[in-house]
């Protein structure tokens, strides 16, 4: 049995509570309430500085593990955690790894959660965003569905399991997705 924790991060109203309840129903899993850790940490991220710096990320991890709730969990930083962070930082500098800061992840989740989609009867979807969203991902419940974003082919398309998944960089403002 693997005793290492798994963290699932999601935007509000994205189905994470349902996923948590489904997973929590399994007798060998324990899933805590979903949002308190993000809400607890996010407002104070600025005080940790650049989280690409190993020392700053380590300080954040230690503080999260010291919170009253997490402190009760059988979770400890591995003795070689600093070495792992240094290795990840070196890979990031070489361009072989991208590590988003928690702040960047929060901003991304907020931008995706704030997207407004209006489905028209003409197989078109109007997507309204407040800020640009790079790599916005959509799923059409139909295999090999021809899709266009603002009249252009999306950045990437994949069809499997009876669905078409596509992604595109959306500018701030209105974008039109057409599914033929």
Percent of residues in β-strands: 15-25%
- For the biggest β-sheet, the strand order reads 1-2-7-4
Q: Round the Cα radius of gyration to an integer and report it.
A: 20 Å
Instruction: Compute the number of structural domains.
Output: 2
Helix residue percentage: 25-40%
Number of helices: 6
- End-to-end Cα distance: 47 Å
Q: How would you spell out the order of helices and strands?
A: HHHHHHEEEEEEE
Mean model confidence by pLDDT:
78
Give a verbal description of the structure.
The protein is α+β, with helices and mostly antiparallel strands. The protein folds into 2 domains: 91 residues, no CATH class; 66 residues. Helices cover 32% and strands 23% of the residues. It contains 6 helices and 7 strands. The chain has a 4-stranded antiparallel β-sheet, covered by helices on one side. A 3-stranded antiparallel β-sheet has the order 3-6-5. Helix 3 crosses helix 5. The radius of gyration is 20 Å and the shape is globular. The termini are far apart. The model has no long low-confidence stretch (mean pLDDT 78).
